[in-house]
Structures are given as C-alpha cells and as structure tokens.
Amino acid sequence: MTALIAQAPAPVDGIGISAATVFYLTISFIFISAILTAVLTKWWRDKCLKFFHGYHVTLERLRGQTTWGALKVFSSGIEVMFDHPYIDRFGRLKRSTLHYQNDVDNSILSLLRYHDELAPEEQKRRARQVKRTFNPGPFRRLWRSIRNVVNTMRDAFNAAIGAVVGQYQRMNPASAVLSSQAGSVTQMGQTLLSRFANAYEPLLEQYMGQPVILDVLDPINPNNLAVEYTGYLADYTQQWIAIFNVEHKTEREIWIELPAQTVGEALPPLPPAPPPGAPSPVLPTPIKVDQGLAIRIDLNRFKIQNTMHQTVVVRRIEREGFKAVELGMTIPPSGTLELPARDVAGGRLFIEVIRCLDVVAPRKFATVRHAGEFVERKSFLTPMEFDQIPFIPTIMDAFQTRSKNKEEDIKGDVT
Question: How far is it, in rounded angstroms, from Cα 105 to Cα 240?
C-alpha cells in the first residue's frame, strides 16, 4: 500500500488536483471539443443549397453539360439521383452522380428548379417554402437581424474570446487545463461563431425579397454576355445566391423532330474557355437546327444545345409505337442536353420556353447586377397583427405624416 502511494502522481504546484486529474481533464476536453466541431461540420449545410434539397432539379456544369434528378445536399458535397438509372455505352449501370466539395466549388454553374416538373408533394413544399421566405414572421426577421449583427461584429467577438481566455490565464496561472488548451478554446469559439453568423452584405441585404436580375457566366464563352435570370432575391451566403419566382410561366410551346440517325462520328471535346477579348470557340456543325435548338450526335448520344436567350424545359419525348417518356429537365441558354440516340431517334420532343424559374448559383460565377421594380415590404407589425389593435394604425399614420412633412420642409429649405 505504501508503494502504491509513493508511485501516485504528486499534486500540481498551486493546485489542489493531481497531475493525473489534469491529464484526464485535458483528454476529456480535447475529445469534447473535437466531437462538437465534428458534429457542427457534419450537419452544417449551405442554406441556399438547402432550398433545393429533396427537390427535382437540373444541374448545369461549367461547360454547359446538364444533369437532372433529385438533389441531396451534404456538408461535403451534393448528389443528384437520376429519375431512372441508365446503362452507359460500356454496359455500366448508373443511378446517380456525386459532386464532391472541390467539384461544387469549381465546376457547377447553376442549379435550376421548375415548378411544373416537381411531384405534387414537392410543389406543395415549394409553395410553403416560397411563402415562408418572402413573408417571414417577426421571429424569423429578428433571428436574421441577430445573425447579421454577429457577422458584422465577428472579428470583435473573436478578439473578445481570445481576450477572455488570456485574462483567465493571467488571473489563474495555476490552471493547467486551460493553459494547455487555450488555443482549442479559442478555435472552438470561432467555429461556433462562423456557424451561427449570417453572411451580411448591405448591398444585397436591401434587396432581400425584391426583384433582381442575376447574371451567370455564359458556359461557352465567359467573356460573352452573361445569362440573365430574373426573380426575387431569396437569400445569399458567402458561396451561393438564390432567387425565386412565385409563379413559373410558359412563354410558348414548341415541338422538335429528332433525326432518325442513331450513330455518328465522335465529336471533339469542347475547347477551354477563350481568354478575355477572344471570340467564342467554333463548335462542330449541327446536323439540324430547329427553333433555336442545335442538334448534334456524338457516337451514340444526341447533344441538344439551347442557342436561345430563354431557358427551355424538355417535358417529354414521344415516339411512334412507344409510350411517351416524361423527361422534365431544363436547358439554360448555351446549355446542352444529352440523350441516348437509340431511345430517342426519330422521336418528337415537347418543349416549353419559359420566362422564370428558381435558381441557385455560386457567387464565383453569378452576380446580382441589376435591381427590378421596387416592391413595398410588409410592415414588421403586420405578421403580429398589431395593426388590428385600436389606435395603432392611427399612431402609425400620424408618424408617417409627420415624417413626410419633415422631408418636405427640408426640401423647401434647400430650395
């Protein structure tokens, strides 16, 4: 028994706990901070991308290639589940495509959602989402304001965390646990702040819920005129921006006859984007151009390029002797749709030219360049129905009249 006592670690100088206790507390703190950081990193997803999670979307890549299906959003990337698994020319079955974070950051040009191509349940969810986004209640507005303040003062909060940790160390120099983990405490606080804060930009914040025009780089020639999408600014983050349209309207409907050809020569790969000031690359001559759609064949696949300035939606393919197949995918301007030639040769594509849809695009390639017609915002009191309380409308009208008279007096003084 005496030998065991002699071998026990001695208490740390100035502290009433032993070195072994300090060691175990340090290990516990390391694990707790690591678990908390891992959970936050795992479950955190960009809120603009979350708008489209679980919806049928069309994904456009940097050179105009398109993929469509149900979108899954993860913290480390996204996955598009195809509507129907397909077999490629080598006989391999594919039912989804995965885009890791590096691909998401560097190769995705836009994500498009069209109301009529959603399942009935998805349409209901989208309607609720749009209503909640453009008519937030008082608590959602307050929460956004708090997060904006935190983001604006993030550097101050980070400095305050470091100052608190440093001051505690100076006041308690014998605290071995905090002394050994001061850096971890500061890092964990900064991680919590980065997840809690909201990306705040005054230039964009003033147009939340207002009509804007989003410019997205042209996939064929980024130096050319940008592709423009009109809509209402739904939200933005450091990496993404989202615009919604309450109603998705069709401008006109067209039919496209596909050639009966099923095999062709291999097309050369699309050349890289030209340098600034250079013209657009010359693409292979299409075998057919019909109502703004250029049709080419690459080995055993049709490539249908949208050469119009409007976005189109390919609704379905009809072939004589076969059941019509619903496609439901979007082709943005300069985008390309690929279809297996053996399944669509000689068929007819039913296409809608549309005016507006929902768009989520990376801010690396997309910019809000113009504002539309101003829409009057709802009062902060309206969602709480304070305007139904006696005398409240009278007081608000009197306040607005006074403000208006004051502005007129100022203008008169200046004149």
Answer: 10
